[in-house]
From TrEMBL:
PANTHER family: CALCIUM-TRANSPORTING ATPASE (PTHR24093:SF448), CATION TRANSPORTING ATPASE (PTHR24093). Keywords: ATP-binding, Calcium, Calcium transport, Calmodulin-binding, Hydrolase, Ion transport, Magnesium, Membrane, Metal-binding, Nucleotide-binding, Translocase, Transmembrane, Transmembrane helix, Transport. Its EC number is 7.2.2.10. This is Calcium-transporting ATPase. Pfam families: CaATP_NAI (PF12515), Cation_ATPase (PF13246), Cation_ATPase_C (PF00689), Cation_ATPase_N (PF00690), E1-E2_ATPase (PF00122), Hydrolase_3 (PF08282). SMART domains: Cation_ATPase_N. It is found in: Membrane. It comes from Rosa chinensis.
């Protein structure tokens, strides 16, 4: 049966964690047949119809935007392609005609706008970027003129004190969002449960029949008890669901809260995207998301990816002739400054967002699988309920026939049949585990909230699950394994290596000439993307990437003045650093001369290869001999072996710059080799050891020199004696067979390109069947993050493009936080298994107890109110108790869960079947022989027995819930008192049970029990604990054979009482 169930789940309820196919999503929806409350069950499931509708709207808007960006060619040939382009041109002309009509109608300047000190209306200002109106911008005096109209200095930026006025006139940078559901909406959803509705109708009828037969108020108690129980179930369910929704809303807000670099009050600072206003000067660099519509002020090689708006994959060059930048797009290359002209709902992105409804995130594999489990159990429960109703009704009719009363029907008969129907419905209520899929959501919401506190923002729910299965982590070095607080530690210049200490200044280079000193400072302050700005305290602060900051700070330590160099030299061309070029180049005009000078810095081997000369102590360029080249290579390797990042700095004078269309790539003069220290983060070595103990292989993938990479990897405990370290270019040259052979031993890949990382991830996933987590921070890391099972983007160093393609954002860029994600991922998986084990046990016992009792004695021992209470214990309260257990250290001493693992393992079946046999046997014996065994006599004997059976049943579940805390270890109490949610649920369950039995007997059909019977109930429940110990000593065969078409299947849990 277990195999058939797993095959059924695999066939119908198997989806990929990332990018599941539309077919798989539709297949499992069609397979779900027994659902009591679709609105609640599928609340956290993607709405495929809405998603398809949104896709159509998005494509329609993208076509419209692509028309706006279309430029008519000079020559139109009569081909089908050109006819389409002419049609687009006509459509573009029509759109421009409409906009022109709007302008002729006039953008009037309201009194409110003019009184606020602005010279242009919000709608007119927004129209420039939206319609790419070059003439309109020129008519207003260009970007500088528009800046005057909105009262902002292009140098100083917005004045913070005037921000409220700007927000009042030009709007907030927020989109109109669908209002979130209120608490009563969740109550309404919870009450949509079909079985609860049927029970409420039955209860109302029962009240009517009861009053007619037994009089007021006695006749109403049974029906009223059911209604009150239903209301309790609905309220508890709604409160749990509402709290989850608040957690997801908070996480969603955090995901969208991007930090933007702006110039305000004359200084550069970071602000939230929500605080951006019209007039802000925004700094853009590679990988940034454009936060609003605007116009280019200045920039270098700026390219924007507008595919999100236009659908066009080709990047758009932004320059003074085409200065329009639209919000929601991304910076693909270059850098620049932008004047914000419209925010929020006036942007093109805002207009797109308002037309789209929420299609929802894809459901996770566990959610889908548990929907399958719920469907199977629901079908079984439905069959049992139908048979129970038929058996009870048949017995009643046979009994009535034997007494020749078939023709005499009264309200008492109607009441009996209604009671049988209610019993059947109650069996369905308990048998269909509606809470199974929702327990996943509860556990994930809890884990995501806790991970936020541990500096990890989970963007996709499925990542939490998948991280628990991770068998390999491919991590960056800089900022993840190291602190990212860089300082220049060594420098080689003029054939001399020097060590830098924090107290040194210009005297450090007293052995070199003034000419060498000046050219070094030029190369530092001109060839950089960093800026030196004054902070609020008046002190100079360097803003930029850690490497750039380290070099600029070194230049300032030498006595250089960043501002004076920036003002003296005019930058002509810039080629920003990226992970493919591995260098940054800049060309500047030399003052008082027609010549230009190019500066270049970057990866040591690359820059050294571009040089044919070297600066001597007098500042003269001398030919670089092979012997000198080898000596410099030895210096570079020496720095690298000390775990220093090495950079070479070079320059080249260009006598005829007019003929050069790009910055030169060769014949440079080497100035210096710089060694930058980036210490390993505290705790990284321990975190790596934790991963290795957990069966997770850690591989370092870095763009650094191989000697630097090996030194850091050894310090972190990643590179072992039998491990392999290679360079990216060597890896790419290998055949598929060679890759397959070396990857198991590969621990370090240096000088890697994003393509190398992507290739490695594909090999690990497809050939070696690993579950791969990959870290990334750059724009070019996006393909590897997208390809990996779990993409981990860096929150501090990461670009917005990297974050958008990631599943988890590591807010502090720390490797230890990645290990925390893995720990919580394992916890989610294990917690859901615990809950499933617990709930299936309750399902089986409740089904069999009611079914057997009904068939044998003609009545069910548990009433409708009692079963509803049991349903609440095993559903919402059970999920709260077991699905929110925090992780423990033992989780990271197990091997990772394999791909396509059987979710309900042999170990779980052993525990379920063993506990079910014990509980069913005890409860049935009590049901049929209880009066004799307990020596109950008198008129209340039956009521006392039924109450005692109910009490025993509940305490069996209480102690089985404790057993379920660990499916393998004998000591289930370890850490229990530290799990506050679990303890609160346990205490509440026991307290409410006492109240129901002792004080609510009128509604629950119970009677007060003596202290002896209470003690007996607790002891019968507590016997579950030694039963569990015996069960855990029974070995379970750990079958590792793969299912057809699947591989890497193994049990996720260790076994045996030795783990107690």
């Amino acid at each position: 049966m277990r195999e058939r169930m797993e095959d059924y789940l695999r066939k119908n309820f198997d989806v990929e964690p990332k990018r599941p196919s539309e077919e798989a999503l539709r297949r499992w929806r069609q397979a779900v047949s027994v659902v009591k409350n679709p609105r609640r069950r599928f609340r956290m499931v993607a709405d495929l119809a809405k998603r398809a509708e949104d896709d159509k709207k998005r494509k329609k808007l993208q076509r419209r935007n692509s028309v706006k960006n279309f430029v008519l060619p000079d020559v139109v040939s009569v081909t089908q392609c050109e006819k389409i382009r002419v049609a687009l041109y006509v459509q573009k002309a029509a759109l421009q005609f409409i906009d022109a009509g709007n302008k002729e109608a006039g953008y009037s300047l309201s009194k409110e706008v003019s009184d606020a000190g602005f010279g242009i209306s919000p709608d007119e200002l927004a129209s420039f970027a939206r319609t790419h109106d070059t003439k309109g911008v020129e008519a207003r005096g260009g970007v500088a003129g528009l800046a005057g109209d909105i009262s902002v200095s292009l140098k100083e930026g917005v004045v913070s004190s005037k921000i409220p006025v700007r927000q009042n006139i030009y709007g907030l940078n927020r989109f109109v969002e669908k209002p979130s559901k209120g608490f009563w909406m969740f109550v309404w959803e919870a009450i949509q449960d079909l079985t609860l509705i049927i029970l409420m109708v039955s209860a109302v009828v029962s009240i009517g029949v009861g009053i007619a037969t037994e009089g007021w108020p006695k006749g109403m108690y049974d029906g009223l008890g059911i209604i009150l129980s239903i209301l309790l179930v609905v309220m508890v369910t709604a409160i749990s669901d509402y709290r989850q929704s608040l957690q997801f809303k908070e996480l969603d807000k955090e995901k969208k809260n991007i930090k933007i670099q702006v110039t305000r009050d004359g200084r550069r600072q970071k602000v939230s995207i929500y605080d951006l206003v019209v007039g802000d000067i925004v700094h853009l660099s590679i990988g940034d998301q454009v936060p609003a519509d605007g116009l280019l002020i200045s920039g270098h090689s700026l390219q924007i990816d507008e595919s999100s708006l236009s659908g066009e994959s080709e990047p758009v060059d932004i320059n003074q002739k085409r200065p329009f930048i639209l919000g929601g797009t991304k910076v693909q290359d270059g850098s620049g400054k932008m004047l914000v002209t419209s925010v929020g709902m006036r942007t093109e992105w805002g207009r797109l967002m308002v037309t789209l409804s929420e299609g929802g995130d894809n459901e996770t594999p566990l959610q889908v699988k548990l929907n399958g489990v719920a469907t199977i159990i629901g079908k079984i429960g439905l069959a049992f309920a139908a048979v129970t109703f038929v058996v009870l009704t048949t017995r009643y009719l046979v009994n009535k026939g034997t007494h020749h009363n078939m023709t005499n029907w009264s309200m008492k008969d109607a009441s009996a049949l209604l009671s049988y129907f209610s019993t059947a419905v109650i069996i369905i209520v308990v048998a269909v585990p509606e809470g199974l899929p929702l327990a996943v959501t509860l556990s994930l919401a809890f884990a995501m909230k806790k991970l936020m506190g541990d500096k990890a923002l989970v963007r996709h729910l499925s990542a939490c699950e998948t991280m628990g299965s991770a068998s390999c982590i491919c991590t960056d070095k800089t900022g993840t394994l190291t602190t990212n607080h860089m300082v220049v530690n060594k420098i080689w210049i003029c054939d001399e290596a020097k060590t830098i200490t924090s107290g040194q200044n210009k005297d450090l280079l007293k052995s070199v000439s003034e000419k060498v000193y000046n050219i070094l400072l030029q190369s530092i302050f001109l060839n950089t993307t960093s800026e030196v700005v004054k902070g609020e305290d008046g002190k100079n602060t360097v803003i930029g990437t850690p490497t750039e900051m380290a070099i600029v700070e070194f230049g300032m330590l030498l006595g250089g003045d960043f501002k004076s160099f920036s003002e003296e030299y005019k930058i002509v061309m810039v080629e920003p650093f990226n992970s493919i070029r591995k260098k940054m180049s800049v060309q500047v005009a030399l003052p008082g001369s027609d010549m230009c000078r190019a500066f270049c810095k970057g990866a040591s081997e690359i820059i050294l290869g571009m040089c044919d000369k070297v600066v001597n102590t007098d500042g003269e360029a001398m030919p670089l001999s092979e012997e000198q080249r080898k000596k410099i290579s030895d210096v570079i390797n020496g720095f690298a072996c000390e775990a220093l990042r090495t950079l070479c700095i070079a320059f080249k004078d260009i006598e005829d710059p007019s003929s050069a269309k790009s910055i030169p790539e060769d014949k440079y003069t080497l100035i210096a080799v710089v060694g930058i220290k980036d210490p390993v983060r505290p705790g990284v070595r321990e975190a790596v050891k934790t991963c290795l103990d957990a069966g997770i292989t850690v591989r370092m993938v870095t763009g650094d020199n191989i000697n630097t990479a090996k030194a850091i990897a050894k310090e972190c405990g990643i590179l072992t004696e039998d491990g392999l370290a290679i360079e990216g270019p060597d890896f790419q040259k290998m055949s598929q067979q060679e890759m397959a052979e070396i990857i198991p031993k590969l621990q370090v890949m240096a000088r890697s390109l994003p393509l190398d990382k992507h290739t490695l991830v594909k090999q690990l996933r497809n050939v070696h069947k690993e579950v791969v987590a990959v870290t990334g921070d750059g724009t070019n890391d996006a393909p590897a993050l997208h390809e990996a099972d779990i993409g981990l983007a860096m929150g501090i160093a990461g670009t917005e493009v990297a974050k958008e393609n990631a599943d988890v954002i590591i807010m502090d860029d720390n490797f230890t936080s990645i290990v925390n994600v893995a720990r919580w991922g394992r916890s989610v998986y294990i917690n859901i298994q615990k809950f499933v084990q617990f709930q299936l046990t309750v399902n089986i016992v409740a089904l069999m107890l009611n079914f057997v009792s009904a068939c044998v004695s003609g009545s069910a021992p548990l009433t409708a109110v009692q079963m509803l209470w049991v349903n609440l214990i095993m559903d919402t309260l059970g999920a709260l108790a077991l699905a929110t257990e925090p992780p423990h250290d033992g989780l990271m001493k197990r091997p990772p869960v394999g791909r396509n693992i059987k979710f309900i393992t042999g170990i779980m079946w052993r525990n379920i079947i063993g506990q079910s046999i014990y509980q069913i046997a005890v409860l049935l014996v009590l049901n049929f022989c209880g009066k004799r065994l307990l020596k109950l006599t008198g008129p209340n004997a039956s009521s006392i027995l039924k109450t005692f059976i109910f009490n025993c049943f509940v305490f069996c579940q209480v102690f089985n819930e404790i057993n379920s805390r660990d499916m393998e270890k004998i000591n289930v109490f370890r850490g229990m008192f530290n799990s506050y949610t679990f303890m609160i649920v346990m205490i509440c369950t026991v307290v409410f049970q006492i109240i129901i039995v002792e004080f609510l007997g009128t509604f629950a059909q119970t009677v007060p029990l003596s202290w002896k019977l209470w003690l007996s109930s607790v002891l019968i429940g507590a016997v579950s604990l030694p039963v569990a110990v015996v069960l855990k000593c029974i070995p379970v065969s750990l079958r590792k054979q793969a299912a057809k078409g699947h591989s890497d299947i193994h049990e996720p849990l260790l076994r045996g009482p030795e783990l107690a």
